[in-house]
């Protein structure tokens, strides 16, 4: 018998395909991560992330300016800190004169309308390369001692002008802790985007190269989540909601589309996904080899993350994708 249902009718021309398209990317969806380094007039490409640079403070202003021109309005800066400034307690992270906070303040001064989501986690400043305080004897990650550090870091970032605080550390209770510290210091208007389900993923490799932030010993499995677990993400979601998160995030994105979807179905908060460094590197590497069409793959990847339920996407592709969207 011939088919009575013909879904292909809705695909028969570009105009019809456009009309019935369910998911559409816009530049408003993107949050662009930025890597900062000390010095002047520096733009050093990250080897494992072609097209992504570590910029000195002066250069970052140019980069933000170009992105704003393309319609990107939200940025997530991360610092690469000199080894000499790293210590067990990540003290440099609360230094208002340090690279990170000075640059954050500078970006806000030059671009008052830009939204900055600052990263709260010890790893870029930690001599141990961990997101928490490491017990010198046992090597354990000390949750509650870490909360003190995170609270001070978040407060210093709010003072520097951060719009959104993004705790990426996965310590227990940190959203409530940071919320309280912010509120007690008259920063109740500063938002928290919680890294709700952050997995202990192999996809962070290029990021750790960029910031020289890999753990000196051990791994992050005692705080980041097991990639095999989805229900645990929903438990973290419930806690972050109860603790006062304004937005939640799933990280990485591509191997976790089911988690994005499950979280989206259960929360009324905006859901963000972090399309991480390794996901970027995979596409770039294949494209450089001529094995994939880099641009089409990029747009498909981003569209699929949005289709899964992400309201916003942190992605190293932001600038390139914004240029594609502008071209139409
Ligand atoms: C650590 C942090 C990591 C990333 C963002 N914040 C790496 C890690 O947990 O080791 C990774 C982002 C990426 O890979 O793009 N606080």
UniProtKB/TrEMBL annotation:
Transmembrane segments: none
Enzyme type, top EC level: lyase
Gene3D superfamilies per the UniProt record, alphabetical: Aldolase class I
Catalyzed reactions: 2 5-aminolevulinate = porphobilinogen + 2 H2O + H(+)
UniProt KW keywords: Heme biosynthesis, Lyase, Porphyrin biosynthesis
Enzyme Commission number(s) from the entry: 4.2.1.24
InterPro entries reported in the protein's UniProt record: ALAD, ALAD_AS, Aldolase_TIM
Taxonomic superkingdom: Bacteria
SUPFAM superfamilies xref list: Aldolase
Pathway: Porphyrin-containing compound metabolism; protoporphyrin-IX biosynthesis; coproporphyrinogen-III from 5-aminolevulinate: step 1/4
Pfam families in UniProt: ALAD
Subunit structure and binding partners: Homooctamer.
Family affiliation: Belongs to the ALAD family.
PANTHER family documented for this protein: DELTA-AMINOLEVULINIC ACID DEHYDRATASE
The protein's name in its UniProt record: Delta-aminolevulinic acid dehydratase
Species this protein is from: Hymenobacter antarcticus
